Amino acid sequence: MLQTLNPTVKYGRYGTPLRWQYHNNEELSEAVFILTNYWSAPHKNPAPNSQEIALIRNYLIYFVNAPCWLLSNLEIAQFDALKIAVANIQTLEDINDWNYCVRSDSFCLRTSMILVLFWYWLKN
Question: Helices 26-40 and 50-64 meet at what angle, rounded to 10?
Fold first, then answer.
């Protein structure tokens, strides 16, 4: 059965998103493990399946909707576009495209900080 994030899980201090491990969701943990293994050695490890990608997408949605992101009026539209893009993730390629979008956009500095935080939380 495909689980979603625990609805009782709140945000951390200052409205920051909690690391994926704090959601006590074994399926999410397994999905992140599969994704990171695939990224580290795609020729040796299987790619995440659609259910695992859905779990990762749900976490990313939770992550980008955290109340901690302080944005200027100019950044709000770009950040909203980032939220829409993450909500539309369906495949591994979509995750990679979203990652590229975050890194290459003119909105790069602040969103790359989000990405750095996400990947730090993902790997630690």
Answer: 100
End-to-end CA gap in the chain: 27
Q: Taking the model in full, what pTM does it have?
A: 0.73
- Which residues are within 8 A (CB) of 35 and not within 5 positions of it... i.e. 6 or more apart? 48, 52, 56, 92, 95
Share of the chain above pLDDT 70, in %: 69
Count CA atoms within 13 Å of residue 79 on its CB side.
21
Residue (of 29, 20, 21) closest to 60 by Cα position? 20
Residue 87 CB partners (closer than 8 Å, separation 6+): 57, 61
**Whole-number Å distance between alpha carbons of 77 and 64:** 14
Alpha-carbon dihedral angle through residues 35, 39, 42, 48, given to the nearest 10 degrees = 20
Predicted local distance difference test score (pLDDT) of residue 72:
72
CA dist list (Å): 13 to 18, 26, 86, 112: 9, 24, 24, 21
